[in-house]
Amino acid sequence: MENRITKLFGIQYPIIQAGMIWCSGWELASAVSNAGGLGIIGAGSMYPDILREHIRKAKAATDKPFAVNLPLLYPDIDKHIAIIIEEGVKIVFTSAGNPKTWTQYLHDNGITVVHVTASSKFAKKAEDAGVDAIVCEGFEAGGHNGREETTTLVLIPQVKAATKLPIIAAGGIATGRGMLAAMVLGADAVQMGTRFVASNESSAHDNFKHTITNSNEGDTILSMKKLVPVRLVKNDFQKRVQEAEDRGAGVEELATILGRARAKKGMFEGDMVEGELEIGQIASHVKEIKPAGDIVREVWAEFEAAKKEVSNL
Questions:
Q1: Handedness of CA 146, 147, 151, 155 (dihedral sign)
Q2: 280 in Cβ contact with 142 (< 8 Å)
Q3: What is the sign, positive or negative, of the torsion defined by CA atoms of 85, 91, 97, 103?
Q4: Cβ count near 268 (within 10 Å)
Q5: pLDDT digit string, tens, across residues 17-63
Q6: N or C: which terminal CB in the chain sees fewer CB atoms within 10 Å?
Q7: How far, CA to CA in Å, does 84 sit from each of 43, 56, 121, 134, 286?
């Protein structure tokens, strides 16, 4: 397929792997890119020297385009950006901050910029900041989320009406059927996180991968809305957060409960009881861990089959 996103990135399929902390290193990014999608290295959980190592390993593992996801609130963001430029990365996905801060600088260094947003209001601001494309991420998504709790089904057409930029839909998408639905609503591509966490190449702990494949409807919930909204697997840690929120706990208390390195403890080190387990609602649909390349090819085959079914309606 050739459309605005495949041409912008130089990829075969409009399938993007999300840049998830602790789960998306060079091995996953290169595997997705080699299969024809766009792989992304998640820089949010990496020190600068680790990011450089992952970029270099990705370049050695694939000659296809790949990107780096860059949370704009990262404390050493200037060092990350310097490394991205020095290592010749051509695509950056920014999130969790103001896209105006770095977009022009990245453009000046020949880098395509995509910004992640959870509302049409901020999608328009991202367009005004000069980004090249937008990820519109619905309430179903894992990780950091929008306070408005707008679902992907509602968000895509709203962002489509608010901006002329290419749109990448995210949140609740793990199949070709979901991809087709998003594109009918106005998306040019989809970004999948949860589906790729449960892949062989994901750097997530096996305990976390199996928690995903064993999950059911209702096993995740949006938490910590006063702090940073994040969708979590229900476990002992999440229950303590919920109890604190129910009695009106403020930002300071929630931050104390969260503590440091909670996400690493869960997703990377495998503590399924006290770890912060960020994952999307679509986890209940994912029942098998398999190679990332197989996931890309299966999603595309499902997409093509679903198109044929729809044409017969």
A1: negative
A2: yes
A3: positive
A4: 18
A5: 999 999 999 999 999 999 999 999 999 889 999 999 999 999 999 99
A6: C
A7: 10, 10, 29, 20, 33
Asked if pLDDT for residue 148 goes beyond 90, the answer is no
Question: For residue 217, what are the β-bridge partners?
Answer: none
Token pair, residue 226, equals 């006063």
Rounded CA-CA distance 41/200 in Å is: 16
Q: What value does the mean pLDDT take over residues 156-170?
A: 97
Domain boundaries, the chain: 4-204+283-311
- CATH 3.20.20.70 assigned to domain 4-204+283-311? The reply is yes
DSSP symbols for 82-98 = HHHHHTT--EEEEESS-
Residues 40 and 29 sit within 8 Å (Cβ to Cβ): yes
Taking the C-alpha atoms of residue 170 and residue 242, their distance in angstroms, rounded to an integer, is 25
| Cα three-residue angle 178-184-186, rounded to 5 degrees | 110
- What is the Cα–Cα distance from 175 to 295, expressed in whole angstroms? 9
Single out the residue of 61, 24, 59, 18 nearest to residue 38, CA to CA. 18
Confidence at 111, pLDDT banded by 50, 70, 90: very high
The one-character DSSP state at 290 is B
Question: Do residues 235 and 217 lie in contact, with contact meaning Cβ atoms separated by under 8 Å?
Answer: no
Q: What share of the chain is helix, strand, coil (3-state, %, to 5)?
A: 45, 15, 40
- Structure token digits, residue 211: 């928690």
Which 3 state secondary structure label does DSSP give 42? strand
Residue 261 φ/ψ region, left for φ over 0, alpha for ψ in the -120 to 50 degree band, beta for the rest:
left
pTM of the model: 0.94
**d(Cα 60, Cα 66) in Å, to the nearest integer?**
12
Phi, then psi, of 170 in degrees rounded to 5: -140, 150
